[in-house]
């Protein structure tokens, strides 16, 4: 076996790797001194810098390959000197536009898998822009790359570089992503089921037209006046406390976590400031209370019928980041919703409406635009994934104010019907709803939220260990675990066992109601 026809990988090592079982496979070590520097760019690739070994704090030694694919996609591939035989393609957040190979966490990250021996690739999805901006998408090819073509592009590229450096293809191929990365994961399961052995899709904006279109438009029309949020971001802490006081204990355990937001309905008029009192940060004005009731009430049409779900109690901890902007600092969710609306307007050649649209007009734009058919990953038919034997692990925060949780549960139920029942679907597809968790680890939760979906997926794919629950922990300032609980495979949820310490993992059992 050769790298560029020049550098030989020892034959005995190559044969051992080819014949070994997954659990017995010895790590592939790149022994040749110049193997990384001698990598050649595959077709359509222009390198920004020469490939080189990197010794970075906290990471294993790796070969860095950084460049541009098809003159559009900026990418960085990290190939460890000691490789475990696995490839990972990471997703990217929002409308992407940035190359972030050092992004932390378990979402759109390649460094955590790299620490375990994965070769991973990060990318910007084919354009350069702030993650909320969508004007680039007026280029049809750029939009199609971001929507789904990035998946086969980066998988092919990553596989080619792996074969060059190690002399063999990856034994397993994985995808992991959160937010838009979660949408890409579901797109991979639906449109490209042959690409990956396992897919970890978190907090996916898979229903882009519903979440960014209907819900995003509802957010703008409910909470903004003249470009400024009716609810100041500083009131998020008060709102969190107010909602927790009303909803936390309804699951039988007062632990600052709302396990099932659907069991609690909040009327924000109960938090209004006293009549005649000056506005304060520990109460709401009448306008603020009305705006919040509208926001949490779901997307409504002109007949006041709810046509799409909206914000749920428990998401207040994160709402200042995503929903309540200021004049000098617009909320990310507002900016991204406006970007999607502008994309629809451009596709229909109609004027944009910065203040937002009536719900009926947004529905009309979504129906007439070609964008949803290209970008939405809402097809419940996962037959091809199941026939191939692929595994799809979906996870979603129940306290996510940006990617609201109800749509993914509805999608999962529809997928179960299409598969012929929940049990049949769960052989290949599992959903995990995470109490108290916000959006993609962008802010620490008040509940256990430290969990590794890729590790659970890897055990499922390679060892047949079906993940009926995933262990989640919460750490104190010194890094020690102060609390743990299982995240149960939907439709089951964790129930506290009376008399047991609620900080312990074994104090819960997964119960399907």
- What is the mean pLDDT? 92
User: Can you tell me the overall shape?
Assistant: globular
In terms of per-residue confidence, which ranges show pLDDT below 50 for 5 or more consecutive residues? 1-26
Which CATH first-tier class of the largest domain would you pick?
A: Alpha Beta
The helicity comes to 25-40%
Report the portion of residues in β strands. Answer: 15-25%
Structural class: alpha/beta
What would the CATH topology of the largest domain be?
Rossmann fold
CATH architecture of the largest domain: 3-Layer(aba) Sandwich
Radius of gyration: 24 Å
With helices defined by DSSP (H or I, 4 residues minimum), what is the helix count? 15
Sheet of most strands: 10 strands, mixed
CATH homologous superfamily assignment of the largest domain: Alpha/Beta hydrolase fold, catalytic domain
Overall structural domain count: 2
> How far apart are the termini?
55 Å
- Per DSSP E runs of 2 or more residues, the count of β-strands stands at 22
């Amino acid at each position: 076996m050769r790298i560029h026809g020049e550098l030989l990988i020892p034959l005995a090592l190559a044969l051992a790797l080819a014949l070994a079982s997954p659990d017995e496979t010895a790590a592939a070590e790149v022994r040749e001194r110049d193997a990384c520097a001698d990598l050649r760019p595959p077709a359509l690739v222009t390198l920004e810098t020469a490939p080189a070994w990197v010794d970075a704090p906290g990471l294993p030694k790796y070969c860095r390959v950084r460049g541009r694919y098809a003159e559009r996609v900026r990418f960085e591939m990290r190939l460890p000197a000691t490789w475990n035989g696995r490839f990972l393609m990471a997703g990217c957040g929002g409308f992407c536009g940035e190359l972030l190979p050092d992004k932390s966490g378990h979402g759109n990250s390649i460094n955590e898998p790299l620490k375990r021996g994965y070769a991973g690739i990060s990318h910007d999805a084919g354009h350069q822009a702030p993650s909320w901006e969508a004007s680039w998408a007026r280029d049809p090819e750029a939009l199609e790359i971001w929507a789904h073509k990035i998946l086969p592009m980066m998988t092919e590229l990553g596989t080619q570089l792996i074969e060059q450096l190690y002399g063999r293809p990856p034994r397993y191929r994985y995808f992991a992503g959160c937010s838009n990365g979660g949408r890409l994961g579901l797109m991979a399961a639906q449109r490209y089921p042959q690409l990956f052995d396992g897919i970890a899709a978190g907090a996916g904006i898979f229903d882009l037209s519903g979440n960014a279109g209907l819900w995003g438009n509802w957010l703008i029309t409910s909470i903004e006046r003249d470009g400024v949020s009716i609810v100041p971001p500083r009131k998020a802490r008060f709102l969190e406390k107010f909602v927790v006081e009303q909803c936390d204990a309804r699951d039988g355990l007062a632990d600052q976590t709302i396990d099932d937001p659907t069991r609690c309905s909040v009327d924000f008029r109960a938090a209004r400031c006293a009549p005649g009192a000056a506005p304060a940060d520990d109460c709401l004005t009448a306008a603020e209370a009305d705006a919040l009731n509208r926001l949490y009430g779901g997307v409504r049409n002109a007949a006041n019928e709810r046509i799409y779900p909206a914000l749920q109690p428990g998401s207040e901890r994160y709402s200042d980041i995503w929903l309540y902007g200021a004049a000098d600092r617009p909320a990310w969710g507002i900016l991204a919703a406006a970007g999607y609306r502008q994309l629809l307007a451009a596709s229909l050649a109609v004027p944009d409406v910065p203040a937002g649209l009536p719900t009926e007009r947004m529905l009309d734009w979504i129906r007439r635009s070609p964008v949803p058919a290209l970008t939405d990953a809402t097809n419940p038919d996962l037959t091809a994934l199941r026939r191939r034997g692929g595994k799809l692990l979906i996870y979603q925060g129940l306290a996510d104010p940006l990617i609201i949780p109800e749509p993914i549960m509805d999608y999962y139920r529809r997928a179960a019907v299409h598969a012929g029942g929940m049990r049949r679907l769960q052989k290949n597809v599992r959903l995990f709803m995470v109490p108290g968790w916000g959006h993609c680890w962008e802010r620490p939760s008040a509940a256990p939220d430290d969990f590794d979906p890729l590790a659970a997926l890897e055990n499922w794919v390679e060892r047949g260990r079906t993940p009926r629950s995933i262990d989640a922990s919460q750490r104190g300032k010194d890094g020690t675990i102060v609390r743990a609980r299982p995240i149960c495979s939907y439709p089951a949820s964790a129930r506290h066992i009376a008399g047991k310490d609620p900080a312990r993992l074994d104090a819960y059992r997964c119960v399907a109601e």
